[in-house]
Amino acid sequence: MKRKIAVCGNGWSNEYLEIVMSGIRKCAAENNADVFFFLNYSVNDTEVYKHVGDTNINSLLECAEFDGIILLANTFHLQSEFEYLCDFVKEKKIPSVSLEYHLPDIDFLGSDNYSGMYELCNHLVEDHNVKNVMFVSGPKGNAESDSRRKALEDALSKKNLSLKDENILYCNWNYYEVEPKLTEWLNEHAELPDVVVCANDVMAMAACSTLENNGITVPDDVKLTGFDHLLSVRSYYPTIATVDRNWDDMGYQGMQYLLDKIDGKPSVPSKYIDSKAVTGESCGCMNHGNKKRGGRIRENRVYANYVENSFWVGHLCDIADNISLISSEHDFHVSVNEFFHNNHEYEGNEFYICLVENFFQTLKGTALLKKSGYPDRMNVICGLKDGKPKEQTYIETKNLVPGYDEEGESGRVYVFLPLYSIEGSYGYVVFGDELPIIYNYCMYNWVRSVVQGLSRLRQNMIIADLHDQLTRLSVTDGLTGVYNRTGCEKVAYPYLEQCHEQGRNAVLIFADINKMKVINDKYGHLHGDTAISTVANVIHETLGEGWIVVRYGGDEFLMVGEYVDEQQIEEAIQTINKRLEEKVIQMKLPYPLKAGIGYFVVNANEKLDLSECLKKADEAMYLMKKRQHEEMNKEI
Questions:
Q1: Residues 250 and 348 in one domain
Q2: Can you tell me the mean pLDDT for 520-546?
């Protein structure tokens, strides 16, 4: 049986994920293992429901059994995520390894932040004779950033140089914090630094852009370096001098380390992989022969990205359009399955949208969506397998992937992402292919688009249900629960017309409560309402579900149904009045309760004239009512 390895990471570190996952995947394929990659897009914002919703995907670890777990801990943003995963690993005593970030009591494998950074900074000092240095740091107290800063300071000290405190900008690894802080520094200092050394490539590209926007050219006016050797800095202009962390090798070694630990082989709790300097145009090491060609490649790539982005945005709009008018569970399954069957170039040939089991029931107000955790069963409402749509089904959550083959080809990577809103957890989506959109932020937009579609579906279903309720209220009599006059026009009359068109005989029955005015005047209107609702209940119970019952007026009822024979109608009329007599005794009513009832058969072979039919039925009812009044005058 294949081994199942869980990997947890954050999608905002997309290029790191792509490179390290290539090594993990390669090692998994060589060692009969499958990878279950739990991904989220949590960030340090103030909306707590997003923290809970994103990191909830990690709770799927509790639903299934894994042989080991790899934590891409340097991608995590939230303290709660660190705490949850550390507690899970310790409680389950599951073999684990953390890549690039030390976690308490968990084995560690990381790149040597110092060696490659020292090599690069020594190159700046020795070969480019830099003296005045700025350092764009990660967060204060961050171990990785501090190690890279130490390498810079050691390289400077060889030439009796130092890093000034005023030349250190503390940022949070991201692009957007660099621009305002570097701009402020430039406005306050007359002398430019010789070089801006950045603790990662993302901040290096931000610093390069900010310098250029302030009329400062890289590398002619100021040199610049980064750290990570991202693909983006290789296609950036100028190419960024950086440090290669050997992430693909780290992913491979991390998986091998974990598999060896699972097999009980001896291992060292912490291990470092050497990093190496990569010079580039931004530090002044320009390859003049390839500069022109590189510029063309970058320009071509910009245009290609523009075209690709146009198609991608169109795809997301198509998803939104497809879902926007759906208002039922069945229609969602059919319509969305059909859409992805014809349009899955971005989603791949295997993926499933798995909703929490009570996703639709919570719309009725009988239950609420959970904020965290997953139920024992999931509703697989949409999915593809080998590019073909799958029927809606339910799976045990512990299986994670519908139809997962434990004996199939190894090296598969299944990618899980959470589906949630402010209401709570909607479920998750799982992809059976490692998709390019995972590694370029497109997946974030895809998940948001699907969640917005699911939210719209919930709104549509609530609106549809409210519309049905309002429709029922508009055609229903509030006292008796049968149809009112509006219902007669919208339901009873169309039924008669339908019977006539289909060549079926129908019958129209009129009923009028006898001595209703006497009951109201002598016993009060509450008794009058009791009499009306009692008659309505008896009529409905006697005739059954196949009949349409209408409160036609104050104490008048109209009944419409298919005509079988005259005996059936006569027996029904007798039963109604007999049951009314029984109700008088059961309810201890102080007055007799009878109804004058007459009927008229609407023959399919004759021209349909509704007003004439009503008149005939009314006349028949009046004759019976006259006889009953004579009898009741003696009783009331």
A1: no
A2: 92
